[in-house]
Every structure is written in structure tokens, then in C-alpha cells.
Specification:
Elements (H helix, E strand, L loop, with lengths): L11 E7 L3 H11 L9 H6 L1 H4 L7 E2 L6 E2 L14 E5 L7 H10 L19 H8 L7 E2 L10 H9 L23 E2 L2 H14 L7 E3 L2 E8 L9 E7 L2 E10 L26 E3 L9 H8 L5 E5 L3 H12 L4 E5 L22 H7 L4 H12 L6 H12 L3 E4 L3 E10 L2 E9 L10 E4 L14 H6 L4 E2 L2 E2 L6 E3 L2 E5 L5 H4 L6 H46 L5 H7 L1
Parallel strand pairs: 1-4, 1-10, 4-7, 10-21, 11-17, 12-13, 12-17, 13-14
Antiparallel strand pairs: 2-3, 5-6, 8-9, 9-10, 15-16, 18-19, 20-21
Family: Belongs to the lysine N(6)-hydroxylase/L-ornithine N(5)-oxygenase family.
Catalytic activity: L-ornithine + NADH + O2 = N(5)-hydroxy-L-ornithine + NAD(+) + H2O; L-ornithine + NADPH + O2 = N(5)-hydroxy-L-ornithine + NADP(+) + H2O
InterPro entries: FAD/NAD-bd_sf, Lys/Orn_oxygenase
């Protein structure tokens, strides 16, 4: 009979990544890459202390000649064989929720440029993938981006007169004309296929991502599992426990979406709202209620609330799906921007605003810089053009600087509809079949249920709902819980919540994890040497006391 008294110890993973979106994939891929591409310049390396600590362990872009100097040794030689597992609450594959929302919103192209992607190999990996697959026709040029800092007057002078060394035509252009090829929007299909190719390249497909919802994270010595009293992470999920030496938190906005309840006075704070939905919780669009009424030949009206790109995409999609008329309310003036952040925050190398951000003295100053750079919601120029076209055809009513102050659900024979009031009041506003809130998600680390234990046992400072991490994106120097994405905005900058921060965060985290495991190896070696020395001393002591044999000492030596 088998010996049932001996139990197999639970497996301890080297790295557990919580969240299988683009940021999580970027970290996993970077941990498996031994020759990553450069994302910092030599000037940045000399200037910023968080880069200086790694010496020559990373490749750098030379500013003067444009060449890339390779690292003195492979940066991931000790991390290629790491046992990596990713946990995702909604899917068992990489970027599942990302792909679902893009499909639901029927978005054809991303907002980001070509050098914002998840591959650690090279800045131009996505561009190279597009050309290698003969899919360059899926790239959409971003107009009025490259060279837009040069005014019409200067461009006219360059055509009509010869420019001298000190003339205005030599004014500094933030984005060089040679980088025009980078300022295209990739299609969603192209980006999704590239992510799958990255996951396949680093063997991150089969069984790496588990569909488990994380409920709690703790860090302490685990009795019966820890070796030499090594602290481990215990990740509690809806399916059991997972143990890890390091944990990476890549959960995007992190918090649950919430609908502003002040206008729904007839409903309690916990009562569900009929025919109301947040944009991130959409399953089918338009909703089944609206679809049924459209099928029955009824005129349908939908209210969209929000001032960002998602609200514009929902308004456009509702009209294309056959909704009779859409009303779109914004509490602020409409903002039209090509990217979430200004061009001064974006470039392949030598990012000016990012340098100012890294040089800030306090986290309060960094928070102000991030908020000023991102502002509120904004709409792409091409979507603004679509909205104006819908307005001209009478299918869309767009009201800016307007707030929803009251909403009552009225049940009739034709079904329930929302009767709303706004500020300022809109005369003749109809009742609506459905209300969509595209109001974003407010990030607050203090409200995350799975971080409550960590906040109690290993407290850190928090500012503006964001944790004050170390420069390595670590929770604390002695707590290897790493954070990337929006929650790391105080270290990554204004582009941290976007794809622009995914690769930068992955680079920092990979270097820190490598350093962590190297330190663990050094400590194990020292402990082993001490143990060997103690063993030798014990053998001699046993021999002197007459309880041991001198030959055992000779064998040891």
C-alpha cells in the first residue's frame, strides 16, 4: 500500500503575475528575454538614480551616434528559467479582457503609436511584425503629429527663402521627420496577433495563465513550506492558494467601475439600476432591451454620459447599430487630443517631460505633473469628425458642460424608460431606453480588497489613491511585491496607465527581480558555507570527545 502519511508540499512559484493584460504580458516576456532592446539613453542612465544602480546591466542608446551599446552580461540569464504563473479573473489567456472590450466597442485601431507594445526585443518590434506579415496596410497614419510644432508661417518661409543657421526654420521639432513611420496606429487585429506571437516566442501560452480571481495577498513565513524561514507570498484565490517568492501586480485601473448615484435618488446605494450600464461592464451592445425594441420597429433613444474616447466610440457605435437617436452629455468642454498625453511626454528616447518627472523631489509634485498631463477625458480627431457627421444628420445630440442631476425610471406599456433632468436644463429632452456611463474608473489602492492584508502588515504611504512605491516599482525594499500600470503612475509617469508604461515598467521589474534572486543565491551560498564550517567543527568535536571517528573527518576534507 502507498504511504499516505507523506504529503506533497505545495508548489512555490518564482513569479506570480496578477492580471494577464498587456502589462502582465510585457513583464512575463521581459523576464524570459536575455537580450532586451534599449529603452533608455546613456544620458538618462547618467542622470536618473533608478537607472544608475544597475551599472552596465542594460543596453543603452547612444545619443550622439545613435548606436546601441549591449549590456556587459545577459540581463536575464538567471531569469529565463523562472517558474512564472499569471492569474486573471476573467480569462485563461493573455489579453482576454482587452480583446473582449475592443470587440464589444468595435474598435478597429488603437490610439497608441507603433513603438508602444509589449515586446522586449526592440522598440520597432511591432512595426517589424507588421511588415514581416505583409500587413502594413493595417496601419493608420496619425495626422498633424510629426512636425506639427512648425507653424504655417515658418513652413512658408522655408519654401520661399534660403534658411540660415540662425533662422526660424531651424526651430526645434520635438519629433524628427525620420520617425514619421512610428506615428501610425496599429489595427486591433494586428496588435492582438503580435501579443500572441510574443507569448508564443517566450513559451507563455500553455498553462501559464490561470482563470482565478485573487481575493487576498499576504507576505510572511509559511509554516511547513518556507525553507530557512524564507518569507513567501500567499495568494488566496477563489480556487485555492498559490505560493510565490515574488508577485507582480498588473491590474490596470484595479478598482471596480462605479456609476455616479447622485442622480438616482429613488434608488438606494446598493440597489441595482435597470437599463443602466457602465462601459466596462457591457456584455452586448446595444443592450437586449434596446435590440428588442428595435426589432419591434420602435424608435429608440440612448443616453451616453462621459467626455472621453470611450463615450465617443459608444455614441458612434450605437448609431451604426441602428439606434434612432443618441444623446451625449459631457460635464466639461470637449477636448480633442491625438493621445492621452501630449507629444512632449512621448518619444522613443530622450523624453523631455519624462525627465522632468523623474527629477521631481516629492511624490506630491509627481502627482500634480501626472494629473496636469493627463487632464480629463479626450477624443481623437477622427472620432470628433464622426460625431460632427452624426450631428449634421440629426442622429446625435451633443451637449457639453451639462450634468445629469436627476433620473426617474418610468414604467409604461411599451416598457420602462428613463426620464432625466440636466443642469443646465434641456428643453424637450426625451425619455431614454438605456443609459450608458463612460465615466472611467477612479483608482484608489486603499479600496482594493486583496491588498488590505498587505496594507496592514506592510504599510506604505499613499497619495491621491496611488501607492508610493520604490524606484524599482517594489512595494517596499524588503517586500518583493512589484506594481506596474496605473497603480505605478508615481514612478512611471503620465503614460504609465497606457501601453507606453507597460514596457518601461516591465524593464524595471525584470531588473529588480533578477537582482532579488541573485541576492537570494548569495545568501544561500553564505548559509551553505557557514553550515559546512559548522559541520566540520562538529565532526572534530565529536572526534575529540571520543564519540566519532577520525576517518569521518578525513572524508570531509
Amino acid at each position: 500500500m502507498p504511504d499516505t502519511s507523506r504529503q506533497t508540499l505545495p508548489h512555490v512559484h518564482d513569479v506570480v503575475i496578477i492580471g494577464a493584460g498587456p502589462c502582465g504580458l510585457a513583464v512575463a516576456a521581459r523576464l524570459r528575454e536575455k537580450a532586451p532592446g534599449a529603452i533608455f539613453t546613456d544620458e538618462e542612465h547618467r542622470r536618473h538614480r533608478f537607472l544608475h544602480r544597475y551599472g552596465r546591466s542594460m543596453p543603452l542608446k547612444q545619443v550622439r551616434n545613435g548606436r546601441v551599446t549591449c549590456c556587459a552580461r545577459p540581463t536575464a540569464s538567471d531569469t529565463q528559467d523562472l517558474d512564472i504563473m499569471a492569474l486573471d479573473a476573467t480569462h485563461d489567456g493573455w489579453c482576454g479582457r482587452w480583446n473582449k472590450l475592443f470587440k464589444c466597442y468595435d474598435i478597429e485601431h488603437l490610439r497608441s503609436p507603433m513603438f508602444w507594445h509589449v515586446s522586449p526585443v526592440d522598440r520597432d518590434a511591432l512595426l517589424g511584425y507588421a511588415y514581416s506579415q505583409n500587413r502594413e496596410n493595417e496601419l493608420l497614419e496619425i495626422h498633424h503629429c510629426v512636425g506639427k510644432e512648425v507653424s504655417k508661417h515658418i513652413r512658408k518661409r522655408t519654401r520661399t527663402q534660403k534658411c540660415s543657421a540662425h533662422s526660424a526654420c531651424n526651430a526645434r521639432v520635438e519629433i524628427n521627420e525620420r520617425d514619421r513611420i512610428d506615428y501610425f496606429n496599429p489595427s486591433q487585429a494586428l496588435f492582438s496577433d503580435h501579443c500572441r506571437a510574443v507569448a508564443s516566442r517566450y513559451h507563455l501560452c500553455d498553462g501559464v495563465v490561470k482563470k482565478e480571481s485573487v481575493q487576498d495577498i499576504s507576505f510572511d513565513v509559511v509554516q511547513g513550506i518556507s525553507v530557512n524561514d524564507e518569507p513567501l507570498f500567499t495568494v488566496t484565490t477563489d480556487r485555492g492558494l498559490q505560493y510565490a517568492r515574488t508577485v507582480v501586480l498588473s491590474v490596470g485601473p484595479a478598482n471596480q467601475p462605479s456609476i455616479p448615484r447622485h442622480a438616482f435618488k429613488a434608488f438606494s446605494a446598493t440597489e441595482s439600476l435597470p437599463q443602466v450600464c457602465h462601459s466596462t461592464q457591457i456584455e452586448t451592445f446595444p443592450d437586449t432591451v434596446v435590440r428588442t425594441r428595435m426589432t419591434n420597429g420602435q424608435r429608440t433613444k440612448v443616453l451616453v454620459i462621459g467626455g472621453g474616447l470611450t463615450s465617443a466610440q459608444l455614441s458612434d457605435l450605437a448609431i451604426r447599430k441602428g439606434v434612432t437617436k443618441v444623446w451625449h452629455l459631457m460635464r466639461s468642454p470637449i477636448a480633442i487630443k491625438t493621445f492621452d498625453v501630449e507629444l512632449s511626454w512621448m518619444s522613443k528616447y530622450r523624453n523631455l517631460e519624462q525627465a522632468y518627472f523623474y527629477s521631481a523631489d516629492t511624490d506630491e509634485e509627481r502627482l500634480q505633473m501626472v494629473r496636469a498631463a493627463r487632464g480629463g477625458g479626450s477624443i481623437l480627431p477622427r472620432y470628433h469628425k464622426k460625431l460632427k457627421d452624426h450631428i449634421s444628420r440629426g442622429r446625435l445630440e451633443l451637449r457639453t458642460e451639462t450634468k445629469l442631476v436627476n433620473a426617474q425610471f418610468v414604467t409604461t406599456e411599451a416598457g420602462g424608460r428613463w426620464k432625466v433632468e440636466t443642469e443646465p436644463a434641456i428643453e424637450g429632452i426625451p425619455s431614454f431606453d438605456f443609459i450608458y456611463f463612460a465615466t472611467g474608473i477612479e483608482t484608489d489602492v486603499a479600496a482594493l480588497p486583496y491588498l488590505q492584508t498587505m496594507r496592514k502588515t506592510h504599510p506604505i504611504d499613499e497619495i491621491g489613491g496611488l501607492p508610493c512605491l520604490t524606484e524599482q516599482l517594489k512595494w517596499k525594499d524588503d517586500v518583493p511585491l512589484f506594481v506596474t500600470g496605473r497603480l505605478a503612475s508615481l514612478r512611471l509617469g503620465a503614460a504609465g496607465p497606457n501601453l507606453g508604461g507597460a514596457r518601461t515598467g516591465a524593464e524595471r521589474i525584470a531588473l529588480a527581480i533578477q537582482e532579488h534572486f541573485e541576492e537570494c543565491k548569495r545568501e544561500d551560498k553564505i548559509s551553505g558555507d557557514i553550515a559546512a564550517t559548522n559541520k566540520d567543527e562538529n565532526e572534530w568535536e565529536r572526534f575529540v570527545l571520543g564519540r566519532g571517528s577520525k576517518y569521518s573527518c578525513l572524508v570531509e576534507h
